[in-house]
Sequence to fold (426 residues):
Amino acid sequence: MSGGRAFVDITMSLDGFITGPNDSVEAPLGEGGDRLHRWVYDLASFRRAHGLKGGETGRDDDLLNEALERTGAVVLGRRMFDHGEEPWGDDPPFHDPVFVLTHEAREPLVKQGGTTFAFVNDGIERALKFAKAAAGDKDVSIAGGANVIQQYLKAGLLDEMQIHVVPVLVGDGRRLFEDLGTEQIELEGTRVLDSHDVTHLQFRPPKTEGGAS
Amino acid sequence: MSGGRAFVDITMSLDGFITGPNDSVEAPLGEGGDRLHRWVYDLASFRRAHGLKGGETGRDDDLLNEALERTGAVVLGRRMFDHGEEPWGDDPPFHDPVFVLTHEAREPLVKQGGTTFAFVNDGIERALKFAKAAAGDKDVSIAGGANVIQQYLKAGLLDEMQIHVVPVLVGDGRRLFEDLGTEQIELEGTRVLDSHDVTHLQFRPPKTEGGAS
Fold:
């Protein structure tokens, strides 16, 4: 990894959802949305990011660890921030600078454990530029929600998408891919890894000429 | 394979569509929907089924050949039949008995090359029963469209789904998974095979107690 790459690393149901139905502040993952992330909760690197010891190791853990290790900064949407702020608590699991896309100016928030939230109200390109600067020789995680990922994808600003496909149909919720228009978007499959309960698909999305790479 | 299994074998875009937008009699795969099946057209077994010689061999061809070889009968919906009847021509690519789900009684059609179309107007279970009888020790392909596959899935009548995921976003069209309700449906991943331009995911869907297996 050369650093400075913008990547998405997200779990999706086989029917294309990244939350269950009716997500809200009370239920950020929607009804039953925990099911999607079940493959993650017991992994050693997930537990470590949440200040817990122990946990499972192996391929899934290696993959999650890889994503956590390469991350030097995070970009996320205002809605995801509003939903997450309380459950993330005083020591949020990012431990990195986080850039939150907003429409109004707002003072940064400094949390424990290395997480800072800075609010960016002049567009996704600028937020990514700040995040790349903050990440140094590490990469930038475009963490969500779906709408934010779609904006970066459409703008041709993503270097990589890793989608963890879970073999469950949730029927409703937030779709990872939506409102992208009907001009076909070609991705390039770059890696497929399979483990017991989840299939990890990695893609290279199309980049716009002149987008940082 | 012990025979008598009901299986789905279908190509889906990464964003969940099995056709492009606005499918019709004139464009059965929707606008740009050919893209989804591009991985198939040059394969030796596809060409053979369409009366052509030559073509590519390898993993993709092996998989397609496996699906064609195991098929002893086919079930499909009326809409798919209406869209396909003309392009399939006098020697349709099935070469097997085909059972078409309809709402009205209709005489069977006998075509060249072993394809017969029988019309079943008393439900999906009965159509599957006929198809299994016709298939003998081979399997039954539930060929589509999406709505028919969803009905069999919901009814717990499918033994296997093989989904060929193509790394393209088509934006609109017929979704493979839709209108299934919000009660989560758990599938079991049974095989993942990857080739250059397509990832083949095989699943075991939930079966209803008493469903033929």
Chain A has six helices and eleven strands. Residues 59-70 of chain A form the longest helix (12 residues). Chain A touches chain B through 38 residues (CB under 8 Å).
